Amino acid sequence: MEQTTKKDDQEKLLEQVHNKVSDIAANIERTQIADYVLLMNSPIRLIWTNLLAGISRGVGIAIGFTIFASTILYLLQALNVLNLPIIGNYIADIVKHVQYQLEGRRTF
Hints:
Elements: H1 2-31, H2 33-40, H3 43-81, H4 85-107
Helix pairs in contact: 3-4
């Protein structure tokens, strides 16, 4: 009787250990630690990956800022048409400066 109880306890303990090891293995697989370790062991691949990521971020920021700035300028020109007393002059000055900069860059 006592022998079977010990055996059952050992089986339960082994099952718990097996479940924990399976959970740890699943977590490691999910976090892709093996890929990260391979990347860290290959400096050229790491540099190449970071270079591409940096270029992508730079291009994305440039495109995003261009869209944002053009939208703001479009809205400012639309507000200038309304001829608001104080804001209208300020907006007109901003638009003139931007157009001057754009024309100046085209001549080069």
